[in-house]
Amino acid sequence: MPSETQDAFRAPVGTHDILPPESGRWAALVAAFARRAANYGYGLVITPIFEHREVFARVGDSTDVVRKEMYDFEDKGGRAIALRPEGTAPVVRAYVQHRPPSPWKVWYAAPNFRYERPQKGRYRQHFQVGVEALGVDDPDIDVEVIALAHGFYTGLGLRRFRLLVNSMGDAGSRPRYRDALQSFLRPHAERLGPEFAQRVEDNPLRVLDSKNPEVQALVADAPKLVDYLGDESRDHFERVQAGLTALGIAFEVEPRMVRGFDYYTRTVFEFQSDALDGAQNAIGGGGRYDTFAEEMGGPPTPGIGFGLGVERILIACDAEGVFATGDVALGATLDAFIVDMLGDGSSVALLEELRAAGVAADRAYGGKSVKAQWKAADRSGARFAVILGREEAAADSVGLKDLGSGEQHTVPRAEIVPRLADTRNAPRQEGTTR
RNA sequence: GUGGCCGUAGCUCAGGUGGUUAGAGUGCCAGGUCGUGGCCCUGGAGGUCGGGGGUUCAAGUCCCCUCGGUCACCCCA
């Protein structure tokens, strides 16, 4: 237990504060995703950060996310509640509850919570951006969704990542495959230990992506999902692959990729960064869930979506040297900084005028020395300093200094606001600093 | 949940084999230049050495516990 003074007043294990200027990079990333999603015809959906526990139970009783990583609790009304561990279930729940017209194409940006031991790229609260498209069975939408994510990564500047795809089969083929796999694995259960044996019984598909070399060697000879696909699933998968190829999106079929949620059917995919050295190299993933809505009591409705992990994407960006904080941070750039040598209160009114005109402006507080004000102006990164000085004031003017070039003019007080507003609206003429 | 490594100013780190008032760089504040920033010089503030217990004449240094960080397993974004 954290003792009150030492540990209580800090972010809980596995969580982080994101401060300026880094927070500006987050804002820029989410803004880029929002633009892209809107461009593809997706609207924003905002769902609660917690749901009735049953909503997430549908993610899979045999998955770690549900079995041991849920932040669940009873609220004061005795309801079983859980913090959202993943993005798809709440969106499907919202779809079932509101029955919007199909196709329903939505995007989200939201934190997820999983009670895990943290390490690099794995946190108890992590942020995902994602999309869900419900009501469309057409493989074209699988391709569209994957292309959206793929283009988002490349738009950030990422290059060193791979797209892995697989098909999980459907309600007809999956049980047949499951049985075949179980029969294949069971004879080895004793040799590979109780954990393995348990998994073979609970969820044999997830044995496939084990990192244990012994298990991997075994799995290499195991029956493959693709060989058990029904005609429809096989055709769907082939059309998805053809669609990706037609768009020039490189991918690898990874027949042993199963992913961690039970609701997936047919198309599943994952983006892995080669720039991340750790074990946490999945920067995004998703798939089709054609029976999920029905399992939640809604009409049979196919769906597909993905979630992309913001923390991991930013780690990958750092590793590839792209989308750096200084280059992209939103909201950190000031147009003007006031250096006040009068101290008569006129700076307050001028600041309000500037801001009302859309000029981002700031000042130093607390009657700082002139020198300190100049240093603050410099640090602020503002393009201009506006000088309230005695000489200028005598002529009903202010000083305007370009902090980049050092050039300084005297400007009539009445003109300073429109002038800065103009400069802002017609910013930096390339190559013509003077 | 299991295991390895790590924890000294806001930040990055020095502090052989225990030994007086715990240091540097950077950042912050002030001054040199009470109207001109970035460079330079001077000064200042800032630490219960993560926390607790133990060994010892003496612990930042050794031992135990605990909290936190990090990495791996597991799992995933």
CATH superfamily of the largest domain: Bira Bifunctional Protein, Domain 2
- Estimate the global geometry from the Cα principal axes: elongated
Structural class estimated from helices and strands: alpha+beta
Stretches where pLDDT is under 50 for at least 5 consecutive residues are 1-6, 428-434
Number of helices: 18
According to CATH, what is the class of the largest domain? Answer: Alpha Beta
CATH architecture of the largest domain: 2-Layer Sandwich
CATH topology of the largest domain: BirA Bifunctional Protein, domain 2
What is the typical, i.e. mean, pLDDT?
Answer: 89
Commentary on this structure:
It is a single chain. This protein has 434 residues and is of the alpha+beta class. It has 2 domains: 12-172 and 230-326, Bira Bifunctional Protein, Domain 2 (BirA Bifunctional Protein, domain 2, 2-Layer Sandwich); 333-425, Rossmann fold. Helices cover 39% and strands 20% of the residues. It has helices at residues 4-8, 22-39, 53-57, 64-67, 88-98, 139-156, 173-185, 189-192, 194-202, 213-219, 231-246, 292-295, 310-320, 325-328, 346-356, 370-380, 390-394, 413-425, and strands at 43-44, 50-52, 72-74, 80-83, 104-113, 125-134, 161-167, 252-253, 265-273, 282-288, 303-309, 336-340, 361-363, 384-388, 397-402, 408-412. Strands 1-5-6-11-10-9-7-8 form an 8-stranded mixed β-sheet, sandwiched between helices. Strands 13-12-14-15-16 form a 5-stranded mixed β-sheet, with helices on both faces. A 3-stranded antiparallel β-sheet has the order 2-4-3. Strand 3 and strand 4 (80-83) form a beta hairpin. Helix 6 runs parallel beside helix 11 (231-246). Mean pLDDT is 89; it is low at 1-6 and 428-434. The structure holds one RNA strand of 77 nucleotides.
